[in-house]
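Quick log. Single chain, no ligands specified.
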Amino acid sequence: MHPVTAPPIEDGAVLVDDAGGIVAVGSHSRVPTPHTAELLEFRDAELVPGLINCHTHLELTHLEGGQHREPEFVQWIRRVRTLKDALPADALDAAAAAGIRDLWSRGVTCVADTGSSGAAMRAMATLGARGIAYQEVFGPDPAQCAASMTELRAAVDGLRRLATSQLRVGVSPHAPYTVSAELYAAVAAFAERERLPIAVHLAESKDETVLVRDGAGPFAEALRARGIAVDAQRQSPVEFLVRRAVVTRGTLCIHCVQVDETDIVLLREAGAAVAHCPRSNRAHGHGTAPLALFREAGLPVGLGTDSVVSVGELDLGAEAEAAGLSGDDALRMLTIEGARALGWEQEIGSLEAGKSADLAVLPHASSRRPTPSHASLLTVVSGRIVHQISAP
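-> predicted structure:
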């Protein structure tokens, strides 16, 4: 057993109460076994905290099987948007549900999803999943701001009816190339007033940096072709959003590839967190995010798979490998560090008495620590078995 915040325990055990909380953690001989308790035993296996996926687009799961490559990132975004818009809401809901079940089969017990359809929130509520659903909002034209905010408020009102202690709602002004400065400001004010967490795609590509800093490049050309004015901000994308109070304490900044040391200081001072998606960054040719510098600066960092359209399988183990992580370091990043990035470290991310019983049983690895990409034998969310492939 790997509690993560404590040394490994041979022949370890966890006692879970009827409310789905962890009552005791320790060696099997020391953890009580109430006569009414259901006993599950797994030999030659690794008991770990449930893994945490800090960035997905579960409504796109139906597009698995081909990454739908386009020569330029701008064209790829348009292509994905077209494919998604062609499907009805029930198909998106089914796709999100399939994505959640797939994550459970890999030992993932918490997901931070961004999407515009509400499908992930509905699917998580129906299945009893744990996660945060960030409702996306778009509007690069300042004239769209009021209409975009009306749509966002309506969407959030609907999703909030599904919220529980383990299912949260947030907002996501998508990215600098799809959101105007006016809309960013309006969303930030709305989130502060409604106490909603924010997630933003930020500093993902060089084209994004050129757009914000210089008012040039393919994003700028595409916007101007639509009659939308583009001004050079003479700032990095990070500074642009930090100075406008969009990136504040707890904001989840997704990707953050095109950043320098000044940007990292700004993120740290703002109290932001980072969702690191190395395979997606690599697939689109964006480069490599400076993970070591993030960690040296004390930024909370978790790993995310992004969507199946970018990476194929939603395999957190492959993300850890792509990030250059292994063993104990990989397990911490996929559990307690991911929990910290989402502001959930008091409830999940480690096996400790008093925390929620979110855990996974993985096949025994030959290495000193389990390989997160292994299929899970058992996945438990808040004490409830959500996936099991091996009878105890």
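The longest helix spans residues 89-105.
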